[in-house]
Structures are given as structure tokens and as C-alpha cells.
Amino acid sequence: MRSTVRGRGAVAARHAVAAWDVASPRRPSRLPGVTMAGFGVPSMAMPVRMIPHPGLTLVLDFGAGRPVVDGTTGRQRGSLVAGLGFGFGGVVLARGENVECVQVRLSPLIARAVLGVSPADLEGTVVALEDVWGQEVERIRERLSQVSSWEARFAVADALLTHRLRAGSAAGSSMDPEVAWAWRRIVAGRGLVRVEDLAAEVGWSRKRLWARFRSQVGLRPKLAAKLVRFDHAVHRLVAGEGVADVAAGGGYADQSHLHRDVVALSGETPGTVVGEPFLAVDDVAWPRSPSARPPRLSTGR
Q: Any idea what the Cα angle at residue 154 is, between residues 58 and 75, rounded to 5°?
């Protein structure tokens, strides 16, 4: 992929099968657990594979064309929301022409409060945002289409998410502190954690943590850790690191273990997944910061 800077915070990202305008906010969202990027896609010459990411995906569409996503649960057009596990196996494909949208990545820690539905209800699926937010989606589309800069669009999206988070939190849409801590521990540890250790650290049985985690996050703890570990591994591959080094430093038993996980989650081998357009532009759209230290547990007990 070749990239050339186009103004502050905006990049024209070009790939063999896609030419996209990609924008990142100058400042991070006011909300912890929210990152966003803007995409302008004149055309996708062919369907593009969606690569799983350890966050829920919210797409706010406002362009002349509508994004179309085909997955195991059917076809969705326009604004959508997708749960953790969206894209597992490489079977979810996106396409469209003249698409403009703000894409938001939501931590499962705040997803229920923001979306109004549990992440568990969205596990591995993609649904039309109208099915979740109703007529509000058309008002959001109109508001985004009325502003002319990406920074203004990000401000609109941030204000929307802030309002929904406050309303959802006031209604009691919160997560068990033990589950929230376990998720943060998995993310901070880059997936290199054991469920037994997490359960012991929060003072729960393994069975209880497994059940509560899945009902609130949307994935089993072991699969969540596998997804986080995969996410770090494929970005290291895209950065040009060798398979052997990525396997050794990423917590995999060997290169075969890395190969199996990458194929299972993306539908591609470690050698071919680096060419996927969505993964190739990922670090342009979502600049990465170093992982924080594992958090301390605070449950009020």
C-alpha cells in the first residue's frame, strides 16, 4: 500500500483493490474506550474481507452511496453495528461505491450503555443500526451530511456517543467490575493470560467468570484473549516482522500455532493476510499507542 498525506489528519490511502480517503481525529475522543476514523471510498473494485478486531464496530453512513456488508447472518446496507467476533473465518465481505462514513470502535466496557443492547446479543453478527436505534439513525445521517470537514463529523459523532453513554449509564447499563477488570487485563496483557489466573485474581470460580464474561462481553474469556493476541500478531506481520519472530514474541507455541489461529480468525494465512486492504490501512486510520500496564482490580470489596 502507498500512502500520501492530504492535509492535517487526513490521508489518501491507496491499495491494489481500493483507493480510500482515510481521516483520523486530531484529538482523541472524550470517551475512554472509543476510537474513530473517517472513510471516503469512491469504489471497491471487488468485495473486501473484514478482519476481526477486539472491539465492537459502529458505522455511521452519510455518503451518496451505501456500504454493503455480506456475512453469515445476511446482508446489511448503510449504517450498521457489529459485535465482537465480526469477521471470524474471513467470511464477511464489504463493498460499495461513493461511500462516506464515520467508523467507531467501541470497547465492550461501554458498548451496552452506548448501544442500548448487550454485546452478547451481537456476538459475531452485524445488524442494521436502524434495528437498534430506530429513526435516530436517519437524523444522524442528515447531521453528518450537513457538515463539511472530518473534524466536524468526528465532533458530531463524539457528542452523540457521549449523550448515549450518559443516558445508558444512568439507566444502569453497567458491567460487573470483575468482568471489566478481566477484559482490561486481557487487553493490557495482549491476550497472554490464563482464564484460571483471571478467575483467581477476581476471587471467582472459573465457571462463574466464564459465564459472566460471555454474557456481558459477548465472547468467552479464552476466545477474547485469542482475538486480542491475533490482533497484535497480524499488525506485527503487516509491519514487516517475520512469522517466526511474531510467533515467538506473541505467545504462540510455534509457527504452526500462529498459522492455525490466523487462518481460523481471518480465513487467510500469515503470508497473505497482510495484503488485506482493511488491515493494510488499519494503522493509518487507527494510530496505535503503547499498551498500558495491567490495571489494578477495584471491586469495592
A: 25
**pLDDT confidence of residue 7:** 34
Q: How many residues does the chain have?
A: 301
| Nearest of 57, 292, 259, 82 to residue 190 by alpha carbon | 292
Residue partners of 176: CB distance under 8 A and separation at least 6: 212, 216
Residue 45, pLDDT score: 65
**Residue 238 pLDDT grade (very low, low, confident, very high; cuts 50, 70, 90):** very high
Per-residue confidence (pLDDT) for residue 14, from 0 to 100: 45
pTM of the full predicted structure?
0.88
